[in-house]
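Whiteboard transcription, Tuesday session. T.W. wrote the C-alpha cells on the left side:
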C-alpha cells in the first residue's frame, strides 16, 4: 500500500517498481527524493491517488530487487558493476554521436548545438565522481565506516549528485525532451534514445545511493 505522504525516495526504496512510474511522469525521486509524493504530484499537476494506483499496477507485474533489504556491500557491488561500468561504456559513445550530429547537422535550426559540450563535461565530472566513490567512500563503507566517519564524504557526493541532476535537466532541455525532429537521421534518433536511457539509469543510480546506501551508512 502506497502512502502518498511518504517521500519519493522512501517509496522508490521500499517499492522499487515505483521508479518506472516516477520516470514516466518525470517525478524526481533521486535528487528530489526528500519531497513528499503528494506534494511532488500536486506540483506537477498529477493526482497522487492515480500515481499510487499506477505503482500498484506496476508492482503486480514485476518485482525488482529490494536493495534496502540487502547488505550494503552487495548494493555497492551492484552500483559499480551495473551503473559505473555502464556509464563508462555508454557515455563516451553518446558523446561521439552528439559530436557527429552537431558536425553534420549544425546548420539546421533543430540541431542540439552545445549538447556535445554538455556531455563532455558530464563525462569528466562523472568519471571523477565514480573514482572518488570507488577508491574512498565505498572502501570506507565496506570497511565498516558508519555515521560521522563517512558523513563528510557522503555530503560531498550528494552535492555532486545534485549537480548531475542539473546536468540531466539541461541535456533534456537542449535535446527537446529526447523527441527527435522529423529531419533527424538514424544517428540523431539513436542519440536521443540513448540519452533517455542514460537519464533513467543515472536517476536510478543516484537514488540507490542517496535513498538507500547513504542513509544506511549514516544511521547504522
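and on the right, the sequence the group agreed on:
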Amino acid at each position: 500500500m502506497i502512502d502518498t505522504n511518504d517521500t519519493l525516495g522512501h517509496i522508490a526504496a521500499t517499492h522499487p517498481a515505483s521508479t518506472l512510474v516516477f520516470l514516466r511522469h518525470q517525478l524526481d525521486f533521486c535528487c528530489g527524493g526528500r519531497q513528499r509524493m503528494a506534494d511532488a504530484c500536486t506540483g506537477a499537476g498529477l493526482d497522487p491517488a492515480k500515481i499510487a494506483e499506477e505503482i500498484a499496477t506496476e508492482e503486480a507485474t514485476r518485482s525488482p530487487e529490494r536493495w534496502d533489504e540487502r547488505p550494503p556491500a552487495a548494493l555497492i557491488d551492484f552500483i559499480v558493476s551495473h551503473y559505473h561500468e555502464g556509464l563508462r561504456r555508454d557515455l563516451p559513445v553518446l558523446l561521439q554521436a552528439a559530436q557527429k550530429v552537431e558536425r553534420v547537422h549544425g546548420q539546421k535550426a533543430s540541431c542540439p548545438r552545445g549538447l556535445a559540450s554538455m556531455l563532455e563535461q558530464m563525462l569528466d565530472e562523472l568519471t571523477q565522481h565514480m573514482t572518488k566513490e570507488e577508491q574512498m567512500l565505498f572502501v570506507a563503507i565496506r570497511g565498516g565506516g558508519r555515521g560521522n566517519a563517512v558523513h563528510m564524504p557522503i555530503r560531498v557526493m550528494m552535492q555532486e549528485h545534485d549537480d548531475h541532476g542539473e546536468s540531466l535537466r539541461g541535456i533534456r532541455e537542449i535535446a527537446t525532451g529526447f523527441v527527435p525532429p522529423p529531419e533527424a537521421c538514424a544517428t540523431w534518433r539513436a542519440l536521443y534514445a540513448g540519452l533517455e536511457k542514460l537519464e533513467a539509469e543515472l536517476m536510478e543510480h543516484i537514488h540507490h545511493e542517496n535513498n538507500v546506501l547513504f542513509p544506511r551508512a549514516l544511521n547504522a
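Someone added at the bottom: The chain has two domains: 8-61, 70-219.
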